[in-house]
Design goal:
The chain is mainly β. It has a single domain, classed as Lipid/polyisoprenoid-binding, YceI-like (Lipocalin, Beta Barrel). The chain contains 2 helices and 9 strands. The two termini are 36 Å apart.
Amino acid sequence: MLKRLAILLPLFLLLAFSPQQDFKVSTGSIAFRSDASLELIKAQSNELKGLFLADKKQFAFIVNIKSFKGFNSPLQQEHFNENYLETNKYPTASFEGKIIEDVDVSKDGVYAVRAKGNLSIHGVVQERIIKSELTVKDGNISIKSNFTVLLADHNIPIPKVVHEKLASEIKVDIKADLIKK
């Protein structure tokens, strides 16, 4: 029994006092832009939430779709939520997976990384690799990323009546500041 304790005690102490590498989003925003031939639609949410487990290189981000603001009109926002994204049925969008590259978050710097994971929008999950920029400064992390989403990939139909007002490819920008959990 004493021998087992002598082996387990150093392991327990190592786990108990090892530096935590878990981060959570302190502030985060996600914006999208639909640039169709007859109309430009832009909206943004400041309610991006997420976690990053640096030791495991795993992440998970989520946003409530109804939190997007800035549409051209209240009616446009209503159509976005009810007719296209069906937020009563699919209230969130998420991205979870792993960072492909090795990043030492204990060292300040700017790192170009690729995030590989599952992007879930409108109830449809697509595996994606999304390029991002990680900035580490004073123990905190900032993330910037921009990518496109094809509406067809997530079964979001564009009715013919609004085909020239809604782009089939949506541009997405993400910014997030993370702090140690």
